[in-house]
Design a protein that fits this description.
The chain has a two-stranded parallel sheet. The chain is mainly alpha-helical. The two termini are 24 Å apart. The protein has helices spanning 12-20, 29-42, 47-60, 66-69, 74-81, 90-110, 113-118, 141-152, 160-169, and strands at 126-127, 173-174. 33% of the residues are buried.
């Protein structure tokens, strides 16, 4: 039996996410934007809630296509607010529309969103060595710096805790516990 981080043992969906995605270095701009949207919606909620609604989010937000999202009008926002399959929070929905515009601007300015995001870890994976999940902090100096810069650049719902979870999810920080089989498989 494979040893995993205990947080993922609640369901097959969680285990699959842990085994195939979480902590894998991600460099695709559109996927990086998707994770930013999902992490923003997760604020104040459990990740399992978001993961269980992920496909509904994909459908509702045009497969996280920022070029489409920036054109959402009040009618589309009303539709999203009435979509029982996603998180119906006006602030988070409006922030997603706003963040899509900011994302497109940053992507153009830096040549890619990947370059912008990975600059916070000096374009490499930060490999921690936590023995237990209780050792893993909710934030770090890197997530503090990232949050401050994202806010300065116009992003919303990007506090330091959200940024740290985002860095973990996209594999910029390897926070698999050292006894987890994925610890040596991801990052450098």
């Amino acid at each position: 039996m494979k040893k995993r981080c205990s947080w993922c043992e609640g369901s097959d969906l969680y285990r699959s996410y842990h085994d195939k995605e979480w902590g894998m270095p991600l460099h695709d701009d559109d996927k990086l934007f998707e994770f930013l949207v999902l992490e923003s919606f997760q604020a104040g909620l459990s990740w399992s809630t978001i993961l269980n609604k992920r496909e509904a989010f994909r459908l509702a937000f045009d497969d996280f296509d920022a070029a489409k999202i920036v054109n959402y009008n009040e009618e589309k926002i009303f539709e999203l607010l009435n979509n029982a399959h996603i998180i119906r929070n006006r602030l988070k929905i409006n922030a997603t529309v706003h963040n899509a515009e900011t994302y497109l601007h940053i992507k153009k300015k830096y040549g890619s969103f990947d370059k912008y995001i990975w600059q916070f870890t000096d374009f490499k994976v930060i490999k921690n060595a936590w023995s237990t999940e209780d050792d893993i902090p909710p934030t770090s100096p890197v997530s503090d710096k990232m949050s401050k810069q994202l806010k300065k650049d116009g992003f919303k719902f990007v506090g330091t805790t959200i940024c740290y979870a985002y860095l973990q999810a996209i594999g910029a920080v390897n926070d698999h516990i050292t006894s987890c089989f994925r610890y040596h498989e991801v990052g450098v």
